[in-house]
Design goal:
By secondary structure, the chain is mostly helical. It folds into two domains: 7-44; 47-83. It contains three helices and no strands. The protein is elongated and about 70 Å long. The model has no long low-confidence stretch (mean pLDDT 83).
Length: 93
């Protein structure tokens, strides 16, 4: 009596492993691209931590995003001595 293997399950598992490996390779490539971008940002004279914060804010909900962005930009401008003129909208009645 021979015991058969479930080739369908084995093939499916191999496909999942191949797909996971490809995705992990893509992630490694994206991490390298991000590292290169950070080097480019730094060499252009920008603050990487400030840019990270800006990107984090941009990825949030738009209502929270605008308030936090303006607050952070005003703090950054104050800390660096950069003039920053903001026209604040009038409150709705």
């Amino acid at each position: 009596m021979t015991i058969g293997f479930n080739n369908t399950a084995a093939d499916q598992l191999k496909q999942f492993a191949d797909r996971m490996e490809r995705l992990m390779d893509e992630i490694d490539g994206l991490k390298a691209d991000l590292k290169d971008l950070r080097s480019e940002v730094k060499s252009a004279g920008f603050n990487i931590k400030a840019l990270d914060k800006l990107v984090a804010i941009r990825r949030k909900d738009s209502s929270e995003q605008e308030v936090e962005l303006l607050n952070d930009l005003m703090l950054y401008a104050h800390a660096t001595g950069t003039p920053f003129d903001v026209v604040m909208p009038e409150p709705a009645e």
